[in-house]
Write a structure and sequence with these properties.
This protein is of the alpha/beta class. It has a domain of 215 residues: FAD/NAD(P)-binding domain (3-Layer(bba) Sandwich). The protein has 14 helices and 14 strands. The strands form three sheets. Strands 5-4-10-11-12-9-13 form a seven-stranded mixed β-sheet, with helices on both faces. Helix 1 packs parallel to helix 10. The chain is globular.
Length: 390
């Protein structure tokens, strides 16, 4: 396919900026449209597994990433009531060796800052802030950019406006779970936290993930519990009013963890929503990627990774197909099975992490029988994705 016409990307988050950089490597000009007047990334920590970091490294971003991220030596599962270790997956140097790319943890804003700098430094990328795209994306894009796009990519997140222009796209649904995001200064960390690993504490109907954020000199805590949605699910507001729900979800957990949650600051409340199977493109000129197309629960820590994978695959398909509709069809054929498998893994993890009663006992026994290498092998299909292409 020729690339005389630019590609328009709606959304300047991780999905949109990565897509712009991947397209630039294929010789495409891009217009990146963002409704915000200034780019500020909400959220806290982010896990970049090897299937995602590999793509960012190919974009030349490893030195910038290494300047701000940490590479945990292991990913550990721990019983939230007893603090008994259940299982551990080697990461660190083992991840680089086994999956040919690192496993890093960093602040989400740090990754966006790196991507934004790279996009601004790329002559083929143009960023347009303060541009809201609604109802008629093509008209809005053409007016804002002054150019007619060859294709429009909706990378505008779970509450995508572009989705309305894709007939058959799936609606947003509440998953039944709430995520609490908290930051804990290293000086207040409980002894059960380790600065060189990602730790997931498991318990009935809840789990807690903790890992260090180098830039903040703090631990990022993500507590996921069963709960009800908020009136303004997209905004993450109302944390103060619902703080008692967080305490109640962990009332029978180990005292060290309960005390740690009470001492954490900046609690943010986020109902977790998903976008299940539906149309990803209109068959002509508009396609959805990342959370706009297939937002999933974070139980496999793959939301950002799937958006980054999407970016690379779509750029390849646009470069290798004779026209836009053919590129979209190739992209969908390449991504559907992958997204479905990752979504199923997240659903399994949700079941296993939040298990109680006899299921919890059986889970712990199974994990005890699996050694670190066996657990790592179970993740080869996920973390090793794309390694054969290098």
């Amino acid at each position: 396919m020729g690339n005389a016409e630019p590609v328009a990307i709606v959304g300047a988050g991780i999905a949109g900026l990565t897509t712009a950089l991947c397209l630039a490597r294929q010789g495409w000009q891009t217009d990146i449209l963002e409704q915000a007047g200034t780019l500020t990334e909400v959220g806290a920590g982010l896990q970049l597994s090897p299937n995602a970091s590999r793509i960012l490294i190919d974009l030349g971003l490893l030195p910038a990433l290494e300047s701000i991220w940490s590479e945990p030596e292991a990913i550990s599962l721990v019983d939230g009531r007893s603090l008994r270790p259940l299982a551990s997956v080697p990461a660190g140097t083992s991840a680089r060796k086994r999956w040919a790319a690192p496993y890093g943890v960093l602040h989400r804003a740090g990754l966006q800052r790196i991507l934004l700098h790279a996009a601004k430094s790329e002559p083929l990328c143009r960023l347009h802030l303060g541009c809201r795209v609604e109802r008629n994306p093509r008209a809005a894009v053409t007016e804002a950019s002054g150019r007619r796009p060859a294709a429009i990519i909706g990378a505008d997140g779970i509450w995508s406006q572009v989705r309305a222009s894709v007939p058959g796209a799936a609606p947003v649904r509440f998953s039944g779970n709430i995520a609490w995001r908290l930051m804990l200064p290293l000086t207040y960390a409980a002894k059960c936290l380790s600065s060189n690993r990602v730790t997931a504490f498991l318990g009935p109907k809840a789990h807690l993930v903790a890992y260090p954020i180098r830039e903040a000199d703090a631990f990022n805590l993500i507590a996921i519990v069963a709960g009800e949605p908020a009136a303004e699910a997209w905004a993450g507001r109302g944390a103060e009013d619902r703080q008692s729900e967080l305490s109640a979800a962990f009332e029978d957990w180990h005292p060290d963890l309960r005390s740690m949650l009470k001492g954490a600051a900046s609690a943010t409340f986020w109902p977790l929503c998903t976008v299940n199977d539906g149309a990803w493109h209109n068959g002509r000129d508009t396609i959805l990627i990342g959370d706009a197309a297939h937002a999933m629960t974070p139980f496999a820590a793959q939301g950002a990774a799937m958006a980054i994978e999407d970016a690379r695959e779509l750029a390849r398909c646009l470069a290798g197909s004779p026209d836009v509709p053919s590129a979209f069809a190739r992209y969908e054929a390449a991504r559907r099975a992958r997204i479905d498998r990752v979504r199923k893994r997240a659903a399994f993890n949700r079941f296993a992490y939040h298990a109680g009663g006899p299921v919890r006992i059986a889970r712990n026994l199974v994990l005890a029988l699996k050694g670190p290498e066996s657990l790592a092998a179970d993740l080869d299909w996920l973390y090793g994705y794309g390694a054969q292409d290098r």
